[in-house]
Structures are given as structure tokens and as C-alpha cells.
Specification:
Strand content: over 45%
Helix content: under 10%
Structural class: mainly beta
Low-confidence stretches: none
Number of domains: 1
CATH topology: Tachylectin-2, Chain A
């Protein structure tokens, strides 16, 4: 497996108040005739994230046809789980509605932040979204006592399946508090109420890893295939396979993509989103500084 990079698609242009820095966590939505709407998370001048989108034709990905002037999802009211920003992660098309799973930000006193998982739903195929509640659908618990974030959701055989990030505690490093995190699994019968037992899907390979984040998962030929971000300070893209979606075999050398020698994705690559169009597999991904330089696209060689 090898991905052929086609270059950067979009970087923050400061044209709008919501779009001052970052274009992180790209998520594609097919519109037909090779046209796509790509949702992403950007930050305003106060460093608070919201979610907007751009539209393009996948055959001319560097030609942006439209950018939303305003975000489609913003922070919640003071005191809510998402009152300091929202970041999108996963879209599910279910019964003529789009389910948008996202991470909500809180600022804490004793640690830098608290993450929880929320859900917004669209009745007009992604032009607008409405949060289902002011509270999260997945939060801290006896299973996940520190934080949860970065949900990747699939609906299969009447069952909703989620792979999410779970924090493992806070440690101080050079005066900065940081938390290691890895990927766990949860299930639901309605996409809203989730059951979890702490099942770990992707864990650290060695002491040089402290973070395993944002997964992109496809299920083909009876095999689950996952691309995810991993590393210590500078993310790379890893790869794993599973028969049941719970027990995974890591083989990061098979991810098929790495940093470039120079440029916008030369220091790190992360936050993949894999999708298929006309028999070809595409990868959207971020580069340096967690999306501060924007996002690019790659195509799978020979498209296996």
C-alpha cells in the first residue's frame, strides 16, 4: 500500500472571522458528480475552534469552489461541555439525516482542558446542523475518568460502533501538564446512548509514544482497516487491521505515507480521512502544527 501525495488543498486564509488559523480534521461528504463538501475545524482570533466547510471537485482539488462564510457548528453556552470550542471528527448518513460527531472543549483550572463527545444532526444534507442536546453523549466515567474525544463512528448491521480517544491521566513535563491517550471502543443501538467496557483497540507500541488519536476506518473484504495518528511530539500516520473491529494488529509500516522532505507536511502528518470515489481511494490529512498549515490530499497507488 502506498499513497501518492497530490499536495496541499487548503490553508487558513483569514478571510472570515471563524477562519483565522488552522484547517484541521478534514471530513469529506459526497455531493455527486465528483463534487465534495469538506468540513474542517478552524480557530478564530481568540483560538476558539468552530466547524465550517469548503466545496470542490475531487478531480480539481486545488480549485476551491466555495468556503462557508460562517461556521455550521459553534461553541455552546457558558458552562456547557463545548463552551470553549468544537472540533468535528465523523459523519454518518442514517435515515436521510447526517449525524456529526464532534469533540467539545472545556478549559479547566488544574489541567489545560477537558474533552467530551457531542452530536449534531442535519436534516438538509449538511447545510446546517443542530446539536441534539446541551450535554455530551459521551463524557468522563468510571471507565474513562479523565477525558474522551475524537470519535470515529460506523453504523453496521443495526449497530453503531465508535472508536474514540481516552485520556490516561495528567503528567507534568517541563512545567506543562500533558496527558497520554489511546483509542478505545464503544457500541450503541441508537447512536446516542453508548456502552463501553474499556476495550483498548490501539495502545502504545513503546515508551516513545504518548498519543494515539483520530482514526479513519473503512470496512472492506471482511477486514476493518484503520489509519490513525500516533507519536510523542510530532505525529505520524499509523495503520492497523482487525476482523471484529475490537482486536487490532498494528503494522505502522503499512500506512503507506510519511512526512515530506520539506514544506507544509515535513514535520508531521496526522488526522486522516479515507474515502472512495469512482473506485479510487483518497486520503485527506493535516501536516505541520496540527492543521495550522492546512490540509492536503493523497491517492492510493494502484488503489488496492
Amino acid at each position: 500500500m502506498k499513497w501518492i501525495k497530490k499536495g496541499i488543498i487548503f490553508s487558513p486564509n483569514k478571510n472570515f472571522d471563524w477562519l483565522q488559523t488552522h484547517a484541521a480534521l478534514p471530513i469529506p461528504l459526497a455531493l455527486g458528480d465528483n463534487n465534495y463538501r469538506i468540513y474542517f475545524s478552524a480557530r478564530n482570533k481568540d483560538n476558539i475552534a468552530s466547524i465550517g466547510f469548503l466545496e470542490l471537485n475531487i478531480n480539481e482539488p486545488k480549485k476551491i469552489n466555495y468556503i462557508s462564510e460562517k461556521p455550521i457548528l459553534i461553541s455552546g453556552n457558558d458552562g456547557c461541555f463545548d463552551d470553549h470550542g468544537v472540533m468535528g471528527h465523523s459523519l454518518v448518513n442514517f435515515e436521510n439525516k447526517l449525524y456529526f460527531y464532534y469533540t467539545g472543549w472545556n478549559i479547566e483550572k488544574n489541567v489545560p482542558f477537558r474533552w467530551s463527545i457531542g452530536l449534531a444532526v442535519s436534516d438538509d444534507y449538511g447545510k446546517t446542523f443542530k446539536k441534539i442536546s446541551k450535554g455530551p453523549i459521551l463524557d468522563r466515567s468510571t471507565i474513562d475518568p479523565f477525558f474522551v474525544a475524537s470519535p470515529t463512528v460506523l453504523f453496521e448491521d443495526k449497530l453503531w460502533k465508535m472508536w474514540y480517544v481516552s485520556g490516561l491521566g495528567w503528567e507534568e513535563n517541563n512545567g506543562i501538564k500533558q496527558s497520554p491517550y489511546h483509542i478505545r471502543y464503544a457500541e450503541s443501538i441508537d447512536g446516542i446512548n453508548w456502552k463501553r467496557n474499556g476495550s483498548i483497540c490501539i495502545d502504545f507500541a513503546n515508551d516513545n509514544e504518548t498519543r494515539i488519536g483520530r482514526a479513519s476506518i473503512i470496512h472492506e473484504n471482511q477486514v476493518y482497516k484503520m489509519w490513525y495518528s500516533y507519536g510523542l511530539e510530532k505525529y505520524r500516520i499509523g495503520y492497523a487491521e482487525s476482523v471484529d473491529g475490537i482486536n487490532w494488529n498494528r503494522n505502522d509500516l503499512k500506512s503507506g505515507i510519511d512526512v515530506s522532505e520539506s514544506g507544509w507536511d515535513s514535520e508531521m502528518i496526522e488526522y486522516t480521512s479515507i474515502f472512495e470515489n469512482n473506485g479510487k481511494k483518497y486520503m485527506l490529512y493535516n501536516g505541520n502544527d496540527y492543521g495550522k498549515t492546512g490540509f492536503g490530499i493523497a491517492i492510493m497507488e494502484n488503489n488496492h
